[in-house]
Amino acid sequence: MPPAADGFNLGTILAGEPLRLLIGDFDASRGLDVAYVAPGEGLRVARGKPDGGFLDVDPKSDEGASFAQRIEDGAFGVIERSGGGQVMLVLRDRFARTFRLDATGQPDIQEQRNVPPAADGFDLGTILAGDVLAAVERKTNRLHFVRADGSARSVELPPIAATHVLAHGDDVLVLGRTGVVRIRNGEAFRAEEIAAQDPPTDDSVYFGGVTADLDGDGHGDLAVLDADLHGVQLHAAPTFARGLAFPIFDKSDADSDLREPREIAAGDVDGDGRSDLVVIAFDRVLVYRQEAPQAPR
Questions:
Q1: What's the confidence (pLDDT) of residue 61?
Q2: Residue 223's closest CA among 238, 213, 233?
Q3: Sign of the CA dihedral 114, 46, 259, 249?
Q4: In this structure, are residues 38 and 46 in contact, taking their beta carbons and an 8 Å threshold?
Q5: Which of 37, 158, 175, 254 could be 20's S-S partner, Cβ–Cβ 3.0 to 4.6 Å?
Q6: How far apart are CA 149 and CA 180, in angstroms?
Q7: d(CA 133, CA 106)
Q8: Which residues pair with 133 in a beta bridge?
Q9: Predicted pLDDT at 263
Q10: How far is it, in rounded angstroms, from Cα 276 to Cα 121?
Q11: What's the alpha-carbon Rg for the chain, to the nearest Å?
């Protein structure tokens, strides 16, 4: 565990309320770094120091400033490389770039993939197993699969107003304001819609989510944040039927446009071998542990 991971106060690090926040080792220093998008300022990074403290770095190089401004939530993420290490991914209109930080805290671009000829632009995306970029183009409502050699295929999406793209094994989950769709990335590089899910109410607004086995059946279920509920909607694999919904706090008319809770993650928090949910809401980190299955009576 990096030394900086032993507790820190984000309130003393962040400038304003971040639109997107990522945590990882982005400069190969084995320290914990915090990268976030500040409103109106673009990318900022707090780099972990050997003593466990943080050094705030504002990427200002010409190259850094050219692609790190006004980054949308679903266009900025962390990618775990198969050879080890983490990189940040940013999607812009004409390209997708992965990058780390150099010794001075400036962006060090690792790779760039340009928009294929058949596409007009990138809006959201992630990188799948096999080093395949999966990127949504909102203008044509298509999901593009782009390999490192530049070869590309695409599939038309249902009208779900896409906001995020998530890797789900070799497949893709596209999360939207009005639903979720799972798309298979097959061995022949075909894209095929295999499941879709409609939101539970007309007012539901999905804006973040994770996949994990949340009921112990060996399948990756879907947990999504719902801005109308101010809580979590759970959808069970393999059909993604709605299984459970719970608010994190009581909503009011004043909270109608509030995107809280703001982050959700999944992992084995208590070491019992089962996936738990972790949710960030306001200044709280909430852990929802998965209970052990009950023996049949």
A1: 47
A2: 233
A3: positive
A4: no
A5: 37
A6: 29
A7: 24
A8: 127, 146
A9: 86
A10: 36
A11: 19
Q: What backbone phi and psi angles, to 5 degrees, belong to 196?
A: -140, 155
Contact in structure between 49 and 31 (CB atoms under 8 Å): yes
Q: How far apart are CA 218 and CA 113, in angstroms?
A: 35
Query: In degrees rounded to 5, what are phi and psi of residue 238?
Result: -90, -5
**pLDDT means over runs of 10, the chain (297 residues):** 42 63 75 72 71 60 50 76 74 84 79 87 86 89 88 85 83 82 63 62 80 86 87 84 81 64 86 88 86 66
SS3 12: helix
245, 232 contact by CB (below 8 A): yes
- At position 115, the amino acid (one-letter code) is V
Residue in 37, 33, 55 with CA at minimum distance from that of residue 101 = 33
Read off the tokens for 174. Answer: 């596209």
Q: Which tokens go with 93?
A: 């209109």
Q: Which two tokens mark 143?
A: 């999901």
User: For residue 69, which amino acid is it?
Assistant: Q
